[in-house]
Amino acid sequence: MKALKVSELADYCAELRDYIVRSCADNPGHLSSSLGAVELAVAIHYVFDFPTDKVVWDVGHQAYPHKIITGRREAFQNQRKMGGIAGFPSIAEGDSFGAGHSSVSISAAYGMAEAAELTGQECNVVAVIGDGAMTGGLAFEGLNNAGASKANLLVILNDNRQAIDTNVGAMRKHLLRITSSRRYNRMKRKVWSGLNFIPRTRALLQHLAHTIKRGLLRQSNLFESMNFRYFGPTNGHDVATLVRTLRSLKEIQGPKLLHTMTIKGKGYAPAEKGDPAVWHSPGKFDVATGERVASEGGPAKYQYVFGRALVELAQADKRVVGVTPAMATGCSMNMLASQLPRQFFDVGIAEGHAVTFSAGLAAGGAIPFCNIYSTFMQRAYDNVIHDVALQNLHVVMCLDRAGLVGEDGATHHGQFDIAYMRPIPNLQIIAPRNEQELRNAMYTAYKGTGPFVIRYPRGRAAGVAEEPMEVLPIGKAEVLRSGKDVALLTLGHTALDGAAAADRAAEQGVDVCHIDLRWAKPLDTEMLAWVGQNFKHVVTVEDGVINGGVGSAVADWLSDNGYACHITRLGIGDKFVTHGSIKELKALCGYDTEGILRALLER
Known about the structure:
Layout: H1 9-26, H2 32-36, H3 38-47, E1 54-57, H4 64-72, H5 105-119, E2 125-130, H6 137-147, E3 153-159, H7 170-180, H8 182-193, H9 199-216, H10 222-225, E4 229-235, H11 239-250, E5 256-261, H12 269-273, H13 276-280, H14 302-316, E6 320-324, H15 334-339, E7 344-346, H16 351-363, E8 367-373, H17 374-377, H18 381-389, E9 396-400, H19 417-421, E10 428-430, H20 435-447, E11 452-455, E12 478-481, E13 486-490, H21 494-507, E14 512-516, E15 519-521, H22 525-534, E16 537-545, H23 550-560, E17 566-572, H24 582-589, H25 593-601
Helix pairs in contact: 3-4, 3-11, 5-6, 8-9, 14-20, 16-18, 21-25
């Protein structure tokens, strides 16, 4: 690519964009974000010298062009598949920094810039962050810290006014004011035309930028006020201008921010003009028509069950509200947003704020259902402890995508939530095994007191008919199958594989007593005492880490109360799990039907 003339880069971008579209049509991934960042990635790699220079891509949804440019063109065909490259940046693949969660790029890049100064390295450090990720608190912390330094850091703000759903909040309005000011943009064009290496011109540039900040916007530019030199906005799809701009900015020392305007899905009409939330990750589709390949039919997804149940509760009680950190469509809270918008809150990509905001709602008399993907709830752990649990507030924390999630891989598996939630006092943790149990869990949490955690997996439910909701007894397990040889204790949707394994064990002469624990906390100690008295062999199964999980809780209780059972705990071992299909990953971790069957037969 570097051997091309600048005038040839537009054709290169077109070929790169076409390759991404054709690859993702057959092997699904995060499409539209990467299409919008093609020219940006090409210009960055044309000007900077990766990997000597460091490029940190925030989240990674926009990093497909970067992966292909940096020697992974053929490997990209198998991205997100078992044994293939990851869908997100990865240090193990040679990227400067791994990123699967948002808002990390500025802090990480600033650390690299300071490390380069300390160790005498000659390198440039670039952070590429979307306007959606810029709503996260960590991004502001990074700006605040880096802006007070003299670090040679370039932040590129890729502004397409869209995260997965439409961006919300004051940051969105601030960026809109900047990009829509006619007077500002007239002056900006003069600034860009004079951007070169001549010191006198550079002084003029600084003066003009200061004038714009103070006069034309009639308020402080946020980035300038944090001591970042602000440049932009500029067209993020004009690769020649981007190259010229980046070459100039490369010569300017200190923290600086380039504001680029891009279009999500750029260059592929169905993605560019279609529903942004759909084309963020569209699944398989026909390249020629843009028609998406329908997934196989089957039961409703847990996410749809949650969305419908929340609307049902909110319609019956105006105190019920929904809170999401920018994942309304993903968790199906968009149903509530469309029907009862006053009872819906999208707080932006800010998980910690989502939890504490929910605590404030609860303290004020509302009943918040705060839906955060399990992997993202890790970012709000302190808020859960201090702002919800310590004050025993009635907040319902719904952990979507709990357990293995498949192709998104290690950054997105919800494998830790049972282990990190279980030690917190006052929490009540339930994992429904099917769609009706999810409805009942939500109703139980609504009717209850104190903080609740409801964890449920990604994807389709069990196919059980949905009935009116009812209250479940707190901390009570349910016997699903009677047996005398071995006790099988499953949590949540692992009951499905457990039931299949129990059937197959019976065919081989092993009589399995299958119990759905339902609750990870509080445990049904009466049931556990009965198990301890009647079974020598106990198998526990959970879709989460074994260390500190519900199997550990069962083993601890039985041991502490003098029951000498042989306990086999199935779940995720002490490792980060790679990407692949959920079926492949469950087999890899040993708690699919075959894995459970092996444990039941090994007595």
